[in-house]
Design brief:
Blueprint: E1 8-12, E2 16-19, E3 24-26, E4 44-49, E5 57-62, E6 73-79, H1 92-105, E7 108-113, H2 124-137, H3 147-152, E8 153-163, H4 165-179, E9 188-194, H5 212-224, E10 251-257, H6 263-275, E11 281-287, H7 294-297, H8 302-316
Parallel strand pairs: 6-7, 6-8, 8-9, 9-10, 10-11
Antiparallel strand pairs: 1-2, 2-3, 4-5, 5-7
Helix pairs in contact: 1-8, 2-4
Length: about 325
């Protein structure tokens, strides 16, 4: 055997290795867990296929309250993070996080298992995520293929949410909702962006001139989207997206961490929307002393509990119609 076939030809430390023989080794969020009943919260989950060719899937969650449901619950469509490269809807950190969100916010959740790079480079993730929304819309008249959505979800109270690159996807799905000429679909009440992965060639806010993570951010983007025009691609830099003001909802919640290098992009997002004429309400909240997506890794910390409480309040601010 030629040992050179195991030579590493590309590595982004802590995220991915690519070998000369074509083998890909993903290094982050590789611990996956099955769907089922979560004994601590009573939340139930299951995996479903949603694409016509049976290749795309999502993990669905329903809270314990559906055992005695008297009204339908808001629906949260969730997009996991992972630099468009790692993690899945079955990753332990996301499964645990969404069990908590479903229980505490009393929502039905569709966690989209979009395909990732390098096997499926950007923009595949956006295409898959839109397919998931179209599948959800099949349940508007309560005669869709998935009975949990028919029975428990209120498609007049839909929210998009994601963390890191998943927040990027949630943002772009919100724009697509706003730009499509659609009728009879879901009603998007708001989007929730947790530590959103936005970037650009020019510094904003208090971003340092030099930082080790700046190169990592660039490398991750170029690896995930080899055909990109660069760091000012509208897919990663909303300031250069001519459709940014078409965001198809009236409310946005952005959460950032004080010690996250992406923090200033989250704050800048509000300025971008206002500058381009979006007229909805946007709230930005910063957790002091916290790093990128801390809430996934420290779910019992006070700041993580506070963040989940913000999500609960944001979702349940609008009550079901009588």
């Amino acid at each position: 055997m030629d040992s050179s076939t195991d030579d590493i030809v590309k590595e982004i430390p802590g995220v991915i290795r690519v070998y000369k023989n074509g083998r890909v080794q993903k290094l982050l969020a590789t611990n996956v867990v099955p769907a089922g009943l979560d004994p601590s919260s009573g939340v139930q989950s299951k995996d479903v296929l949603f694409s016509s060719d049976k290749t795309l899937s999502a993990r669905l969650y329903i809270p314990k309250s559906t055992n005695a449901v008297t009204r339908k619950l808001p629906l949260l469509i969730y997009y996991h993070g992972g630099a468009f490269i790692v993690a899945t809807a079955a990753s332990r950190i996301y499964h645990n996080f969404l069990n908590l969100i479903a229980a505490e916010s009393n929502v039905v959740i569709v966690s989209v298992d979009y395909r990732t790079a390098p096997e499926h480079p950007v923009p595949t993730c956006f295409q898959d995520s839109w397919e998931a929304i179209k599948w959800v819309e099949q349940h508007v008249n309560q005669n869709g293929p998935e009975q949990w959505l028919n029975k428990y979800s209120d498609l007049g109270r839909v929210f998009f949410c994601g963390d890191s690159t998943g927040a990027n996807i949630a943002h772009h799905m919100g724009i697509r909702i706003g730009t499509e000429n659609r009728s009879g679909g879901i009603y998007l009440q708001g989007i929730i962006l947790l530590h959103p992965y936005f970037w650009g060639k020019d510094r904003v806010g208090s971003e340092p001139r030099q930082h080790p993570l700046m190169r990592v951010i660039r490398d991750l983007w170029l690896f995930a989207h080899p055909d990109t025009i660069g760091l000012d691609d509208p897919l990663i830099n909303p300031a250069l997206d001519p459709k940014v003001a078409d965001l198809g909802c009236s409310r946005v919640l952005v959460c950032v961490g004080e010690k996250d290098i992406l923090k200033d992009r989250g704050w800048y997002y509000k300025m971008i929307l206002r500058k381009n004429g979006w007229r909805g309400d946007i709230e930005i909240l910063e957790d002091k002393g916290e790093v990128h997506t801390f809430f996934l890794f420290k779910p019992c910390s006070q700041n993580a509990c506070n963040l989940r409480n913000r999500i609960r309040t944001f979702i349940n601010r609008i009550k079901a119609k009588v």
